Amino acid sequence: MPVNLSHADSINNKSKVCVIVGHGIEAITSAVVLASLGQTVHLYADAKMLEQQLQQYGFERHLQALWQMYDQQEQIISQALPNSADKLLQIYEITGETSHYNDNNNDDRDREQSSEVALYWLFLDSIKSVWLEESWITAFNHSHQQTLPVIISSIEQLGHISALAQRLQRAWVYYIPFVFLQDGAAYSSMLTPSLWLLGEKTANSSRQHLSALQPLTQQARVSHSADIATIEFARSSIMSMLATRVSFMNEMSRLADSHDVDIQQVSHIMGLDERVGSSYLQAGWGFGGNTLPTELLQLQQSGQASRVDMPMLQSVIDINEDQKELIFRKFWQYFDGFIDNKTVMIWGGSYKSGSGRTVGSAIHPLLALLWSYNIQTLVYSEKAQTELQALYGQQPLLELVNDAYAPLVDTQALFIMSWPLDSDLDVNQINKTAQPIFDAQNALTCMQIERLVGGYMGIGRAK
After folding, report:
1. Mean pLDDT over residues 184-191, rounded?
2. Containing H/E element for 41?
3. Of the candidates 179, 112, 122, which has an alpha carbon nearest to the alpha carbon of residue 148?
């Protein structure tokens, strides 16, 4: 999808606009959601990085369609990110004088200010490589727009964002962590967030100064505001707790294997206890993506900076990394090590069902291990196929296929990594080849497992 990267002279309306700086999926989703709420959005981003993100998240079809529509309607205007915050702010400075704007691709030119700003929303991950922290803070402190709110979003070490807020010489600074965003449902998960957290530099000020975001607060299942340092700590604690639950269940799944107990049934029983709840209790190959691994790394660094030992956090990380190779070890043991030169099928490659991203996915160590034994790998992964092609397109042992079942006649084993949760598995088709299944997702139900004619190895499950 082409990205409209028009220059500052594209700003030609008189209404207030929401200025977003960032190229990641969080920034893109925020722009689309704000546009859906009737706001005009000016998005400043690196052109290539923005285009890359839009391509990588092609599986977010609803988001893509809305992006294209709002882009064509110029309700979202994408523009090249200036090489300094000063140049960005000059576009919107309300001084009664002509503003000057120049970037690396254009000569100096005068531009009459024509848009007032409702808010600035900065996504730190996207601007770190362009704007030095000291310089953009200085630019905002020297701005004539000290009454305009500034929102910051990012995953940083504890206390970093609250420190930035204190250095900004304005009262209306806010922090929004994206604890609600779900890959595969980015738009809907932000439009009606499960948990809306808001950090405020000035308490109880968001209703008056962030009116553009009030619908999100109102539509959230749960919303909570507090000082920025507290929200930072809450964000990190929530995400790290989720990662801990995953690693705990994966550790228990190994014990379940030795006791001939189905960890799926155990997870269901645990979820019946309201003190535990049912979320993040599914054993599998572990967790990937950007958010949880980044959160754990930042929390670990926060502990080191504070000289606080965090052995449990390190265990969560270690268990997760080791779990990604567990399904291969089950495969090796099933064939008593005689696995050279086989052909296998792999279903799914993304780090979670519903996503097309493979960052942190167990498919990467699995492929590396299989290829080390000269094993031909057929991979069926509808949403992640584009990314896998880009990563491994030159690998002769990889073949990306468009049918999940037909190629099974040529394989000796089937790996299930991330089968869509809303799509039933056809056991009758699988049984035509009677090959063993290595289910890293625990995608098959107990009834389906009982119907299999071939072997079955899941995570903490016995056939």
Report:
1. 95
2. strand 40-45
3. 122
Contact 416, 439 (CB under 8 A): yes
CA distance 458 to 439: 5
Reported as a single tens digit per residue, the pLDDT across 49-108 is 999 999 989 889 999 999 999 999 999 999 999 999 999 999 987 543 333 344 444 433
Distance from C-alpha of 249 to C-alpha of 23, rounded to nearest angstrom = 35
pLDDT digits (tens, 9 = 90+) for 310-350: 999 999 999 999 999 999 999 999 999 999 999 999 999 99
Sequence-distant (≥ 6) Cβ neighbours of residue 79 within 8 angstroms: 5, 6, 7, 8, 10, 42, 43, 44, 45
CB atoms within 10 A of CB 148: 21
Q: Which whole-number Å values give the CA distances from 340 to 335, 337, 438, in the listed order?
A: 10, 8, 17
d(CA 387, CA 183): 15
Which segment of 4-13, 268-277, 403-412, 425-434 scores lowest on mean pLDDT?
Answer: 4-13
User: By percentage, how much of the chain surpasses pLDDT 70?
Assistant: 92
Pairing of strands 109-111, 99-101: antiparallel
Dist CA 350 CA 28 (whole Å): 21
* Whether 206 contacts 231, CB under 8 Å: no
Query: How far, CA to CA in Å, does 327 sit from each of 102, 234, 319, 375, 457?
Result: 55, 34, 14, 15, 8
Q: What is the DSSP string of 214-233?
A: HHHHHHSSEEEEEEHHHHHH
Specify the pLDDT at position 94. 56
Question: In 3D, which of 41, 38, 42, 37 has the Cα closest to residue 8?
Answer: 42
Find the helix packing angle between 61-72 and 25-36, rounded to 10°. 60
Whether this prediction's pTM lies above 0.85 is answered by yes
* Whole-number Å distance between alpha carbons of 327 and 163: 44
Under DSSP, the state recorded for 81 is P
Report how far apart, in Å, the C-alpha atoms of 203 and of each of 224, 230, 276, 294 are: 12, 12, 32, 29
Is residue 239 within 8 A of residue 287, CB to CB? The reply is: no
Q: For the chain, what's the residue count?
A: 463
